Amino acid sequence: MKRQHLGASLLEIALALIVLSLVYIGAMPWITRQQDAVAAKAVSTDHTQFAAAARAYFEANRAAFIAAMKDGTGADTLCLVRVDRTSGAGVSTFSAPLHRCALDASFLQQRAALPATAGATNAYGESWVAVFRLVYDNASPPQPTGGVETWITSAAVGGTSPMTAAPYPYDRAATAAGFLEGNGGVVADKDRSTCVASASANRFEACGAGWRVDLRNFLTSDELAQFAARLSN
Prior knowledge:
Blueprint: E1 2-5, E2 8-17, H1 29-60, H2 62-71, H3 75-78, E3 80-81, E4 91-92, E5 100-104, H4 105-110, E6 127-136, E7 144-157, E8 163-164, H5 170-178, E9 185-187, E10 197-198, E11 203-208, E12 211-214, H6 221-229
Parallel strand pairs: 2-7
Antiparallel strand pairs: 1-2, 3-4, 5-6, 6-7, 7-8, 9-11, 10-11, 11-12
Helix pairs in contact: 1-5
């Protein structure tokens, strides 16, 4: 889905859940479904708050973010996750090949752009991450168009790679995405025909109603390798 926002084209992808682990153990399937629905609703509410804060902060600092994604200028202070509230230091998410910059809730809270009461993690124990990618044209050499694609996702952050992805039980993720109506989507956990995640085919997608995203445009090769290692095919 594309919108005009302050004169720039933004591809706003509201939700693609990448969750490391969530196990519900219960003897009564009905209770499990109710628990899933409650968690899904909480996820959608948290997402809405984070997404609004991330977009607002990006637009307020749009020129600085574009410079960071273009050649790394200022990326050491803008493209961070797991940010320490006192020092402002964090894990870098800048990728020069992708012209990518990402930030999470801890970054926004350290900049007073998201209330501390919002919590550092969501209902699934992961961080909300806003991933921005500067769009380039097909000229030779490619030139930035000024457009920015935005993907907001739930992910584990930190470690050797900024973001660690893993497939999540599809039906539960779809339930959470459903609360966001047409904006919601899910990262595929296998080849589901309409949305595919396949290590053998080197195809990794997040999909929603009327949109499809190639994760290779947003994740580094190391991050994709970690994601692919968790797939069954």
